[in-house]
Design brief:
- The structure holds two protein chains of two kinds.
- Chain A is an all-beta fold.
- In chain A, about 0% of the residues lie in helices and about 50% in strands.
- Chain A contains no helices and ten strands.
- Chain A is globular.
- Chain B contains no helices and eleven strands.
- In chain B, the strands form two sheets. In chain B, strands 2, 4, 5, 6, 9, 10 and 11 form a seven-stranded mixed beta sheet that branches. In chain B, strands 1-3-8-7 form a four-stranded antiparallel beta sheet, with no helix packed on it.
- Chain B starts with a strand and ends with a strand.
- Classes of the chains: A mainly beta, B mainly beta.
- Chains A and B meet through strand 3, strand 4, strand 8 and strand 9 of A and strand 4, strand 5, strand 9 and strand 10 of B.
Chain lengths: ~110, ~120
């Protein structure tokens, strides 16, 4: 039958595992990329960003990788914790000269204890 | 060190009524952005404002929607004659400089609009 509505891609992991969330972007002119975490009922929370002149950036337990050749972005979360459970969005900007964001569709991360 | 504030958090309106959503940016930020989020979708850009100016409204529906960011007070997103399709979460973000690369946007908690 016909599906109603969209379903987010979901990544289910065990506590302590490493998680990798992927994102493809379409515009090769985008020059700044951000990962946001959104918990249920809350606004997006900034996690980490990367400029197009870099291919890797590390934060606390998180790493963002950028592959401009294939227009792919990934977020790696080390030692995933139940509190990491949320929807993760990549966003891009820079095409317009100011920072309005274009968001991807999001991936739901579920962490089991 | 208050973040971006939005009110109300939840708003219920009947079809044909007006909805007013308010956003106070982070202290020191003069750039405000409004986004709309439908269930299980990413946020979609609506409008970008600086104090007393609309910079980019390319994501705003042509009718019934308007936004302002006065010299004093919060930014307001106004939806006139609401319809059920307007039901969504509306998020406001603010940033420091508004100029492209590395100008991080910080988001408020959103207003969830339900149209009956």
């Amino acid at each position: 039958g016909e599906s109603v509505g969209l379903h987010l891609p979901t990544l289910s992991v065990q506590e302590g595992d490493n998680s990798i969330i992927n994102c493809a972007y379409s515009n090769s002119a985008s020059d700044y990329f951000i990962w946001y975490k959104q918990e249920s009922g809350k606004g997006p929370q900034f996690i980490i960003d990367i400029r197009s002149n870099m291919d890797k950036r590390q934060g606390q337990r998180v790493t963002v990788l950028l592959n401009k050749t294939v227009k792919h972005l990934s977020l790696q979360i080390a030692a995933t914790q139940p509190g990491d459970s949320a929807v993760y969005f990549c966003a891009e900007t820079g095409r317009s000269g100011y920072s309005t964001l274009t968001f991807g569709k999001g991936t739901m991360l579920l962490v089991s204890p | 060190n208050a973040g971006v504030m939005q009110n109300p958090r939840h708003l219920v309106r009947r079809r044909g009524q007006e909805a007013r959503l308010r956003c106070s940016p982070m202290k020191g930020h003069s750039h405000v952005y409004w986004y709309r989020q439908l269930p299980e979708e990413g946020l979609k850009f609506m409008v970008y404002l600086q104090k007393e100016n609309i910079i980019d409204e390319s994501g705003m529906p042509k009718e019934r929607f308007s936004a302002e960011f006065p010299k004093e007070g919060p930014s307001i997103l106004r939806i006139q004659q609401v319809v059920r399709g307007d039901s969504a979460a509306y998020f406001c973000a603010s940033s420091l400089t508004g100029t492209g690369v590395s100008d991080t946007q910080y988001f408020g908690p959103g207003t969830r609009l339900t149209v009956l």
